[in-house]
Task: inverse folding
């Protein structure tokens, strides 16, 4: 593997392919030349906001900024409001038009001291800054590569359905191929119908539950087009979606677990129903007295460790099962309500196929729920009307949940919305703007 901390022109063959996209082939020497030229244009800027929509440009901008000694700031999306709020604290903003493209050139830097600022929207929608060291992401890539010795060859081109602004997309889709002499596709594929025609045999697909849960109606790939690995992360993948994806793509999905702060820390192959999670080699995971997951991995987390707000249960072999988010407990009228318990209660009702409960409001919590009904439930909703049907569901739910924990706002959908990584809370929250209690 290439040493990321001392990356330079001699790290790869000058004519090796680093990326494909938009009908072009991008070579390593072009990457090096563009990094060097763009670095000179950046000059002495202390912090740079990376706002490129093209993944190839994104990677050039990151390394050009680091080569210039600037702090790299990566927004969680490219919306104008997001960029405006972050740009005021940065010396410079780089978009697709800023880059200087050259056919060849050299650059080198010491990546051990370089940092990147990521932003994650979390469950509330407000951006939270997370600082990652470049050497931490290099260590993560080395661990990922060690999981499948010989399985992912140098000809395995990476294809992605996830945004490159997210740390998951950057590490798995771009840094991993970069350091293992592979290539990545610069385009993000939002639809499988766009990806399948250009997919190559033995490829790596970096995806998310948001996309793997939308494969219904697709024909299985021919055997000569089956990828070498299909990866998912960022949010839980349902058993039904994992099975459907395996049937269509020709192999089980490998799921990764972690956070923006820690990177990936565990994995599991979705060849069985809800399998246990296997910690990465060398990562010390444990359960705190309050039942939360704690990670102690000197190569990844500086300091004394990090707690993830997920409840966990360990088995004797060191593998573990996730029991849900600890921070999904809210106070409603002075009583603590576990949103996971409310969801479990709703799913026990025969009409409910899927649901997601969120808490609205700051000073006074109000529970809201998005519900996907089965065929019988949809029929009864039409028969009784929205208000009366909601009251009937609340009456059944009250057999398991305290009255203050019954949702006041209800919406019925054909499927639960997700963001690009398959996280639901922010997407669902937008549905309840201006809604009324039921």
Result:
């Amino acid at each position: 593997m290439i040493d990321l901390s001392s990356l330079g022109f001699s790290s790869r063959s000058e004519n090796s392919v680093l990326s494909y996209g938009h009908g072009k082939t991008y070579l390593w020497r072009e990457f090096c030349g563009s990094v060097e030229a763009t670095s000179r244009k950046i000059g002495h800027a202390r912090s740079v906001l990376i706002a490129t929509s093209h993944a190839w440009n994104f990677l050039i901008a990151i390394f050009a900024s680091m080569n210039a000694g600037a702090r790299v700031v990566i927004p969680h999306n490219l919306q104008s409001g997001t960029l405006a709020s972050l740009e005021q604290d940065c010396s410079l903003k780089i978009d697709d038009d800023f880059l200087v493209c050259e056919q060849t050139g050299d650059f080198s830097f010491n990546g051990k001291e370089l940092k990147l600022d990521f932003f994650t929207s979390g469950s509330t929608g407000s951006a939270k800054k997370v600082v990652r060291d470049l050497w931490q992401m290099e260590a993560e890539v080395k661990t990922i590569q060690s999981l499948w010795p010989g399985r992912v060859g140098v000809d395995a081109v990476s294809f992605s359905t996830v945004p490159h602004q997210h740390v998951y997309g950057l590490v798995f889709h771009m840094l991993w191929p970069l350091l293992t002499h592979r290539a990545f596709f610069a385009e993000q594929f939002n639809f499988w119908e766009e990806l399948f025609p250009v997919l190559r045999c033995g490829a790596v697909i970096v995806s998310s539950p948001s996309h793997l849960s939308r494969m219904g109606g697709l024909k299985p790939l021919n055997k000569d087009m089956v990828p070498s690995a299909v990866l998912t992360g960022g949010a839980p993948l349902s058993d039904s979606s994992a099975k459907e994806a395996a049937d269509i793509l020709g192999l089980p999905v490998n799921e990764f677990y972690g956070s923006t702060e820690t990177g990936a820390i565990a994995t599991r192959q979705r060849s069985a129903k809800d399998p246990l999670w296997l910690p990465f080699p060398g990562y010390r995971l444990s359960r705190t007295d309050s039942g939360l997951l704690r990670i102690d991995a000197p190569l990844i987390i500086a300091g004394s460790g990090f707690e993830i707000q997920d409840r966990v249960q360990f088995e004797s072999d060191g593998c573990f099962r996730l029991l849900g988010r600890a921070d999904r407990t809210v106070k409603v009228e002075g009583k603590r309500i576990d949103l996971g318990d409310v969801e479990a209660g709703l799913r026990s009702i025969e009409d409910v196929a899927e649901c997601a409960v969120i808490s609205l409001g700051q000073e006074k919590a109000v529970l809201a729920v998005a519900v996907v009904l089965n065929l019988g439930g949809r029929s009864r909703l039409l028969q009784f009307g929205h208000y009366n049907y909601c009251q009937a569901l609340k009456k059944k739910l009250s057999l398991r949940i305290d009255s203050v924990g019954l949702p006041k706002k209800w919406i019925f959908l054909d499927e639960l919305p997700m963001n690009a990584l398959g996280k639901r809370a922010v997407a669902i929250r937008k549905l309840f703007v201006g809604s009324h209690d039921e």
User: Anything to note?
Assistant: The chain has a mean pLDDT of 89. The first strand starts at residue 17 and ends at 21.
